[in-house]
Amino acid sequence: MSMTSGWAARARGLFADSKGPWGPSGGSVPPSSGDTDSPEPPRPGPSSPWGAPSGIRPGMSGATSFDELIARGRARFGGGRGSATPPSKSLIGWALLGVVLLWLLFTSFHRIAPEERGVVTQLGRYSRTLGPGIGFTLPSPLERVQKVDVENIRTVDLGSTTSETLMLTGDQNIIDIAYSVRWNVRDPELYLFEIQNPEETIQQVAESAMRAALSATTLNEAIGEGRGAIENRVQETMQRILDSYKSGVIIQGVAVKQADPPAAVNDAFKAVSAAQQAAQSDKNQAQAYALQLAQLSQGEATAFDKVYEQYKLAPEVTRRRMYYETMERVLQNVDKTIVEAPGVTPYLPLNQTRPPAAAVADGGAAAAQSGGAGR
């Protein structure tokens, strides 16, 4: 009977309010009311199979180090429960002050390089332009600064040396042209706010100006000496159009890199151009020779006028002098001796029968060398 009562008590412990399969969480198991003769003493509360309270192994405390670390972190940042200490108000104030100072530093002071200008907008509207140096503005988003490089020379290439860009000239011929445009910013506020795409606008204006310039130029001028005039005309037209757009851009120059006929007829045009250049060269040489002869004739006429003036003053002396000068020019290269004095007997031309002095000297030197070798 006592054995049956013990097993019943154990069964009631299993179905009681407990946290584990070994009985309630605390206290001892009450004995059965009817089991007064049970030889077993009262048992302590339920224990785990390892002999410790349920959920705790031998050698372990009730809370681990990791749990303590989590609890301290929650308490420090105000996330703990109960008596956790909230963060200090002074620490929060210093942190907010540091954020405000950094915000003012990075949005109110601006460094503008020597080649730059700073365009200031106040609530989206243009306010002023900052020069080189350190500039001060209201903090963002009240005022914002856009830096624009006004010294850099930008280049736009139009056409290509590898592909054809065909345009029509004034004499109804087709030309393949490639050119470049150099420009920079003059008014940064106009450059930023007046036109939406400055580079695309410059390309379109350049193409329009080049077509207009070529329409007033012949093909021979475009591929020859007329390139400089075309470049100047395109630059002036572009500047006038861009000023009317209020673009804030200044055109520094236009350079024609290639101006040739279409590839199909390029060889024939080159041959014609070479022939024209040769004809022009011959023409220039003829003009130079004609100018030289004219200057020589003018000099001789001036010299004759001077001689005539002297002739009128002393005709006999001038006539004799002119005779001597003329005979000197005629006979200066003639190997002949003329004797006009009376009573002189003609003599043999001994200077022609004897060898020249240089030949005699050479012969004597040769003979001396041969005699020395014989000895």
Outline type: elongated
* Class derived from helix and strand content: alpha+beta
Arithmetic mean pLDDT? 77
Order of helices and strands: HEEHHEEEEEEEEHHHHEHHHH
Portion of residues within helices: 40-55%
Number of strands: 11
Beta-strand residue percentage: 15-25%
Low-confidence stretches: 14-39, 44-48, 50-56, 370-375
How far apart lie the N and C ends?
174 Å
Reported for the largest beta sheet, the result is: 4 strands, antiparallel
Cα-based radius of gyration, to the nearest Å:
59 Å
Count of helical stretches:
11
Textual characterization of the structure:
The chain is of the alpha+beta class. 48% of the residues lie in helices and 17% in strands. The protein has 11 helices and 11 strands. The chain has helices at residues 2-15, 65-76, 89-108, 188-193, 198-214, 219-223, 227-244, 266-313, 315-331, 350-353, 357-374, and strands spanning 18-20, 23-24, 109-112, 116-122, 125-130, 133-136, 143-149, 154-158, 166-168, 174-185, 249-260. Strands 8, 9, 10 and 11 form a 4-stranded antiparallel β-sheet that branches. It has a 3-stranded antiparallel β-sheet with strand order 5-4-7, with no helix packed on it. A two-stranded antiparallel sheet has the order 1-2. Helix 5 packs across helix 7 (227-244). The longest helix is centred in the C-terminal third of the chain and has 48 residues, at 266-313. Residues 14-39, 44-48, 50-56 and 370-375 have low confidence and may be disordered.
List keywords for this structure.
3-stranded antiparallel beta sheet; alpha+beta; single chain; disordered C terminus; 4-stranded antiparallel beta sheet; about 50% helix; 11 strands; about 15% strand; about 375 residues; 11 helices
